[in-house]
Amino acid sequence: MPKRASRTSDAAPINIGFLGFGTVGAGAFQTLCDNLPSITLKVGRPLAVKSVAVRNWNQPRYANAPLCTAQRAKDAWAVVEDPEIDIVVECMGGVEPAAELVLQALRNHKNVVTANKELIARRGREILEEADKQGVDIQFEAAVAGGIPIIRALKESLAGNRIQRMIGIVNGTTNYILTQMTERGCEFTTALAEAQAKGYAEKDPTADVEGHDAAYKLSILASIAFESRVDVEQVHREGIAGLTLADIEYARQLGYVVKLLAIGEETPAGLLLRVHPTYLHHSHPLTSVSGAFNAIWVQGSSVGKVMFYGQGAGSLPTGSAVVGDIIDIARNIRHKATGRLPCTCFSNKTILDVNETVTKFYLRMEVADRPGVLGRIATILGNEGVSVASVLQSNASGEEAEIVWVTHEVQEVKLRRALEQVQALDAVKCIRTCLRVED
Ligand SMILES: NC(=O)c1ccc[n+]([C@@H]2O[C@H](COP(=O)([O-])OP(=O)(O)OC[C@H]3O[C@@H](n4cnc5c(N)ncnc54)[C@H](OP(=O)(O)O)[C@@H]3O)[C@@H](O)[C@H]2O)c1
Q1: For residue 18, what are the CA distances in angstroms to 98, 244, 254, 333?
Q2: How many CB atoms lie within 10 A of CB 113?
C-alpha cells in the first residue's frame, strides 16, 4: 500500500514548500497569505508555507520578498527531501532540473502542484505514472491558460461528456500582437516590440510567436479532453511571424478576424491537433477575445458549447490557479483521498496528419497581371477538387496583381496538391499566404 503524504492530526498544519519565487511563485504565495483564514476554513486544517527555494536570494527581486515565517531553503533539493513538507509547489520553469525534483518529491510521497506546461507536455506521462504509483496528487491547472480553470473543468465538471471539439486562444502574447495589428493597423514587428515593452513577450519571442507555447498547452488539453496521451511533437504547428497587414485587412473585408488558434477535434478516423493562424468568422465568440486574454471554447456531447475566458498569465491570475490546486490537494490530504483523480489517458487514439483536415482555406497569391491567369489557376483548383467560394483581384499594376481566394471545405491534401501546380505556373510569382478558415 502506498504511504499517504499527510500527517493525520486535524490540528497540524499542512506544510507547503515552494520551488521558485518568481512571477508565479510570488503570486501564489500572496494569494495564499492574503486569504489564509478563509482557506483554512475551506480545507478544515491550517496551511503553512514552510520553506521556499530560489536559485539565488541575493538578487534585487527578492529584496522585499514577504516570506513571513517561511524559511529560505538552502536549495530546491532541501524542500523536496524535507520530511515535514506535504505539498511541493514547482514554479521554477524548464524541464530540468524541474522533472527530477518533481519525480523525487513524488517518490518521497509528497503531492505536487506545478505551473510548468513544458514539464507536463514533455514528461507528463512519467510524472503522472509516478504520482499514481505513490497514491499522491499531481495538479497543474496554471500550466494551461493561467487563471482560467479549464483543466479542472475538463477533468471534473465536464467528465460526463465526450469532448468533440476544442478551440483555444491559449497564448496571450500572440493574441496581443494580432489584436494590435487588427485594431490599430500595426505591422507585426511594431506590435511585437510593443508586446515586449509591456512585458507580454520575452526578449526571445520564438516560443510564443512560432506557436510552441500553444502546442504545449494543446497537447496537455487534448490528452485530458480526448483521454489519450498526446505528445507535443504530434501537434501540427505554424506561427504568426509571416502574417502581414494585407492578410489582416482581407480578413476584415471578408468578415473574418485572424487569430492564432489551438484546435483539437475527434473524428471517426482519429484526433486532429493543430496550432496555426486562422481566419475565424466574426460571429464566433472567440473573435471577441482581445489583447493578452485567453479563452477556450469546448464542445461536449451533453453540455453543448461552453467557453472559458480570462487572464492566461500574470502573477495573481496564475497564483489563483496554483492556490486552487493547493486547496484541492489539502482537502484530499485531510480526507485521506490523495491520488483520487489519476491520469485519465485510458486509450491510445490515432493522431492524424494535418493533411487529413477538412476545412475552408484563404489563399493570397501574387501573379502576372495578364489575361487568363485567374482562369488557369481556377482550373487547377477545380481539377483537384478545390471548389472556390469567393475570389478578389486587386492591386493590379499592369505588371502584377494580387488574387485572394476563399475555398469551400476541402481535404487539405487536395489543396496542397493544387497549390504545388499553381506555384509551378510561370504567371504565379508566389503564394504569399495560405490560412485555414473556421466558421
Ligand atoms: N509568468 C506567467 O504568467 C506564467 C503563467 C503560467 C505558467 N507559467 C509557468 O510558471 C513557471 C514559472 O514561471 P515564472 O514566470 O514565475 O518564472 P520566473 O519569474 O523566472 O521565476 C522562476 C523562479 O524559479 C527559481 N528557479 C529557477 N531555477 C531554479 C533552481 N534550479 N532551483 C531553485 N529555484 C529556481 C528562480 O530563482 P532565481 O530568480 O534565483 O533564478 C525564480 O524564483 C514556468 O514553468 C512558466 O512557464 C508562468
Answers
A1: 12, 43, 50, 18
A2: 28
Given 50, 110, 217, 360, which residue is catalytic?
217
Q: What is the pTM of this model?
A: 0.95
Pocket of ligand 1 (CB under 6 A): 19-25, 53-56, 59, 76, 91-93, 97, 115-117, 142, 146, 313-314, 318
Nearest-CA residue for atom 20 of ligand 1: 22
Per-residue cell: 316: 495573481
Q: Please state whether the peptide bond connecting residue 37 to the residue before it is cis, i.e. omega within 30 degrees of 0.
A: no
Grade residue 366 by pLDDT with cuts at 50, 70 and 90. Answer: very high
Split at pLDDT 50, 70, 90, the class of 4 is: very low
CA 374 to chain centre: 40
Mean pLDDT, to the nearest integer, of 124-153? Answer: 97
155 part of the active site: no
Pure H helices in 65-153: 76-80, 98-107, 117-134, 150-152
